[in-house]
Amino acid sequence: SDQITLGLNFMRTRREKWRNNVAKYVDQDKEEGKVWVNTLYASTQLYVAIKYSDELSILAKPRKFWDEEYADNITNLAEYDYTEMWLNRIRHAEYVDEALTGVSIRKKAPYDTIRSCPMFESVDPFTWIPDPYSDYVTEARWNFFEREMKLSELKALKVDDDEAEAQGIDTEVQANTTDRNVAQWTSDVTDDTLNKIVTVYQWFSYIEGKLYKVTISNS
């Protein structure tokens, strides 16, 4: 689509810089006799530590002197929800993303009916395809996210079997995966036997004031 092409062209240079940061984050390939200076790793850990030490917390204050128990219950509930919603894990991922890319993205996840609480997930900034003409003031017309899904998941979305089988891994997604693998000393693999992995785009946009989420194939 024209929107995906426009967003990818806008993000291409930024993605290259991000990939370079990821490669340097855990770079252990140093020349013998050279001094190892893992500046990016150290500065990232320092950033995460500062964010945790300066983290906001909720403390409910009673309005009247007999409201102390009520306020304490609200404070305890907020602390409980923090752990139940896994926000400690999500925030750690967000802090690392901020340090490496300057961007962190949090997206609503399906409601957890067992624990009865809303859920969120941290989205990899490498997968983000934004509207180039949006900023803190101008609302985005759309947001795309690249995602890899199992073929069985794609078919569950009522995608035609032949079209689903024809999907592969997008070149941008493969480039992101390769750079992460290089940094982590792992290898690129292709799973065509157990449950084929394919690339899709998740599209979020407002149409006549309503927010829609649409999953489309990479073709």
Short description, anyone?
The protein is an alpha+beta fold and 219 residues long. It contains seven helices and six strands; from the N terminus they run H-H-H-H-E-E-E-E-H-H-H-E-E.
Can you offer a commentary on this structure?
- There is one protein chain.
- With 219 residues, the chain is an alpha+beta fold.
- It contains 7 helices and 6 strands.
- It has a 4-stranded antiparallel β-sheet.
- The model has no long low-confidence stretch (mean pLDDT 82).
Question: What's the structural blueprint in terms of helices and strands?
Answer:
Blueprint: H1 2-25, H2 39-53, H3 68-84, H4 87-101, E1 105-112, E2 117-123, E3 128-130, E4 142-150, H5 151-156, H6 161-166, H7 171-184, E5 197-207, E6 210-217
Antiparallel strand pairs: 1-2, 3-4, 4-5, 5-6
Helix pairs in contact: 1-7, 2-4
List its salient traits.
about 220 residues; alpha+beta; two-stranded antiparallel ribbon; 6 strands
The helix/strand order is HHHHEEEEHHHEE
Percent strand: 15-25%
If strands are numbered along the chain, what order do they take across the biggest sheet? 3-4-5-6
Q: Any low-confidence stretches, pLDDT <50, length ≥5?
A: none
Question: What is the number of helices?
Answer: 7
The radius of gyration is: 21 Å
